[in-house]
From TrEMBL:
TM stretches of this protein: none
InterPro entries cross-referenced by the UniProt entry: Ig-like_dom, Ig-like_dom_sf, Ig-like_fold
Recorded coiled-coil stretches: none
Lineage of source species: Eukaryota, Metazoa, Ecdysozoa, Arthropoda, Hexapoda
PANTHER family: NEUROMUSCULIN, ISOFORM E (PTHR23278:SF32), SIDESTEP PROTEIN (PTHR23278)
Residue ranges of every copy of the Ig-like domain listed in the record: 54-107
Name of this chain's protein: Ig-like domain-containing protein
Length: 107
């Protein structure tokens, strides 16, 4: 984590450079002063969440690990199985198949 903290008489700034997954946490800003008043919050919290791209996405056909953009030709009536695999990523990637622009519903 690469963090810079600066402050002036009216505000304090926390800069997190090149956010990483380990930076995901709750951050708290606490104000300390001599006279506490009910209408002035002394603590503010914020939750930082991070997004991470998947390590890779692969389409394979019948166990073949290739990632070609072309299949076939196949004879009419032939069964084929296509698998789409995504690893890593946060949140966990959701995989959706399309036929042109139409979503293919899961059974």
């Amino acid at each position: 984590m690469s963090v810079e903290y600066t402050e002036t008489s009216t505000y304090a700034s926390l800069i997190i450079k090149s956010v990483e997954i380990d930076d995901e946490a709750s951050y708290k800003c606490e104000i300390t002063y001599l006279e506490v008043r009910e209408n002035c919050d002394v603590v503010q919290m914020i939750k930082l969440s991070t997004l991470v791209r998947p390590n890779y996405v692969k389409i394979s056909q019948d166990g073949d690990r290739g990632n070609s953009s072309w299949l076939g030709p196949y004879n009419e009536g032939t069964n084929i199985e296509l698998k789409c695999e995504a690893r890593g990523g946060r949140p966990i990637p959701k995989i959706t198949w399309y036929n042109n622009s139409n979503i293919i519903k899961c059974k």
